[in-house]
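Page 47, continued from p. 46.
Same chain as before, 131 aa.
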Amino acid sequence: MKNVRYIHEEDVTWSEFEWLFKKKYFSERYLHDRAKQFYELNMGCMTDDEYTSRFLDLLSYVPYFTGEKAKIQSFISGLPIALKDRIEFNEPRSLEESIQKLSHFYEQPKSISKTKPGSNSNVRNKVKWYM
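Result:
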């Protein structure tokens, strides 16, 4: 059995190991900047996948952010109002569920516009083909 500064490797979870590693090898300033980016994260022009990936990456720099409700609220708070309201209305119980709902609601307007009755996109495509 290996002991690293009196820590048994069997007693350390992966997230604890990551935090200990970052604490040892990253500067305090770097960790502070990442935590600040986490708290200021907004979806803006990102896609749902980009926002989710960035959120999860920055979440690893704030290990004291452990409550599921706090994670959900932080994830939702960076979304545009329309998406935020729809996800909050469905009351997600986990961060994973919030991410799934974002993906669902983010893609929904795109699929509606493609199949919307009376949409002129098919007509425009046919007109272009004829010209």
